Amino acid sequence: MFRIGEFSKIAQVSGRLLRYYDELGLLSPDFTDPQTGYRYYSAEQLPRLNRILVLKELGLSLDQIIRLLAQNSSVEEIRGMLALRKAQIEQSLKEEMERLRVVESRLQQLDLHGQMQEPDVVLKSLGCQEFLGIREVFKGMADVQRLVQQIHNALPAALGQNNLGQMAVLMHFAVYDPQALDLEIGFFISGKAPKSFNLTEERVLTRRTLPAVETMATLVHQGRLDEIHQSYGALGSWIEQNNWQLAGNGREILMQLPQPNSGDGVVFEIQLPVVKWLA
């Protein structure tokens, strides 16, 4: 048996927390001396304490924990809930790391403003092109990346690489909203291809002809995916400084996808349709 201070050391929790759990009836001392009032705990109470702490980490309220313990949930049930919580935390950490990289990239863009070399912008004239793709509104870039990878894995294997040109993402939004990205994802067609392709039961890629574009201002972005805004900024500055203006929605030609589980190794060509500025 252990006095409360001793038990707090063994359990690695504060004595104050143990007293609080005692008040709630969550974890009462195994024995209380009626003469001295000293609380005594047993090492056999550690599994129950660990359950309480695990359920607390899962985000459950103390009332919910009390009810759950009263139901005597099995170790496997709690393990399953903990595994789910672990996955949620890992996803949250991944999203926070992506936000951190974007913030760092934005800070870098501020530091480099006015010091950047002239971007290697190329003006292109594009004829009509056949495109096999699917248009959806995405809630975030993670959803976009998953579909890009799915199409990239499926189409060349099904249709043959010789029948496909480059993979591309076509922009259809008037205003950029990272939580409502209206995009069309697919491949340009360089050979034989069907009018439609069933990626899944719910997703069907359809073939259409993209109209010709007289002038595209293009810039190749190499590096990290979360730094692509720097290339957009450089291209936008070049367009403005050279008396052009945007004339429609742009495209991203996916020349090299990011490495698995990483945003590194990206090679994208940004294409923005432009016309000469009329003062």
What secondary-structure arrangement, pairings included, does this model have?
Blueprint: E1 2-3, H1 4-11, H2 15-24, E2 31-32, E3 39-41, H3 46-57, H4 62-70, H5 75-112, E4 122-126, E5 129-138, H6 141-159, E6 164-171, E7 181-189, E8 196-198, E9 204-210, E10 213-223, H7 228-241, E11 244-246, E12 251-256, E13 266-276
Antiparallel strand pairs: 1-3, 2-3, 4-10, 5-7, 5-9, 6-7, 6-12, 8-9, 10-13, 11-13, 12-13
What is the element string, with H for helices and E for strands?
EHHEEHHHEEHEEEEEHEEE
* Whole-angstrom Rg: 29 Å
Determine the structural class based on helices, strands and strand pairing. Answer: alpha+beta
Helix amount, in percent?
Answer: 25-40%
Reported for the largest beta sheet, the result is: 10 strands, antiparallel
Shape: elongated
Q: How much beta, percentage-wise?
A: 25-35%
Q: What is the straight-line distance between the termini?
A: 88 Å
Per DSSP E runs of 2 or more residues, the count of β-strands stands at: 13
In DSSP terms, counting alpha (H) and pi (I) runs of 4 or more, how many helices? 7
Uncertain spans: none
- Overall average pLDDT: 86
